[in-house]
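QA checklist item 7 of 12: single-chain prediction sanity check.
[x] sequence parsed
[x] length recorded as 339
[x] structure emitted
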Amino acid sequence: MPETELMQLPDMPLHDPFIVADKATRTYYLYTSNDPSVSGVDGTGTMVYRSHDLRGWMRPVVVFLAAEQSGIWATDGGWAPEVHELGGRYYLFTTLHNQDKALPVPPANQWGTPFQLPNYLRGTITAVSDSLLGPFTAVDPARPTPPENLMTLDGTLHVDRSGQPWMVYAHEWLQTVDGTMEAIRLTPDLSGTVGDPVFLFKASDAFWISEQIPGGVPHQLPPYITDGPQLYRTPDGSLLMLWSTYEKNVAGKDGTVSGGYVQTWAVAESGEITGPWRQQRPLVRDDSGHGMLFRTFDERLMMVLHRPFENARGKLYEMQLVGHELRVLRQRTDLDGGG
């Protein structure tokens, strides 16, 4: 494909999409994990597509490479990149991991079965740049931002009403069995943390998660997974959190449990990150998830997510807020090609 030819969403490898709508340039920046097959650059990192209309996208450019960070603690992963503006600078959050740095294996869990899965260093790092196009430099290359003893992923930024920045992240089911959402205060320049993590909710709080399991099959079936938090303030002052998990269902007469990836959400009517959080029914099923909300330049509320989980592509939905109730109006198949 010529460098000047625009790409379409069905042709763009796109896992964990995150869009920044830059009003100054009327450009949409779509961040995702680096894929050398389209960026032409090898290595774990972040690349960004750009568009003026959400339909035609410029070939991606790489804005962050883990291996280029002096003294970086990990060079694998590169998942769930997000870019947030704060104080006139741009901050990249992305999840790295290092399987050579083991964490203690947790003791037997509440279901009575010991963990056999390895636990290793995984967490979200923070990097900074003066441009949406990078290059981004790790703020502290020696460690992830959340506590190192916690196996975490998918960190996102939330700034509360008092101006206090937080990182909200998923605490991995590999350590907890029932994955949790947690938050930790950040220093003003996002270079470190303040205090201890705050528990927000656990994956099994989603009341609908096992509704499809028929009678006679135990409903307490681990693991329960938390993925992809993103926070959004509503006009009535409530706080929404988009997040993803796996819906439990049964495949086969032997009671084998499987699950489909779903895009769901929760609301804190208090408007505070500490909640309490009230779980809502999924917005989109069909192996869809890790979505986020943004507004177009004509003020339409949109959600971007990926589907399917493997070989993912970006899907766009036009959304509606009624108070703090979030609704899907329609999939924008004219932009994302359907499917």
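[x] summary fact logged: The chain is about 5% helix and 45% strand.
[ ] second reviewer sign-off
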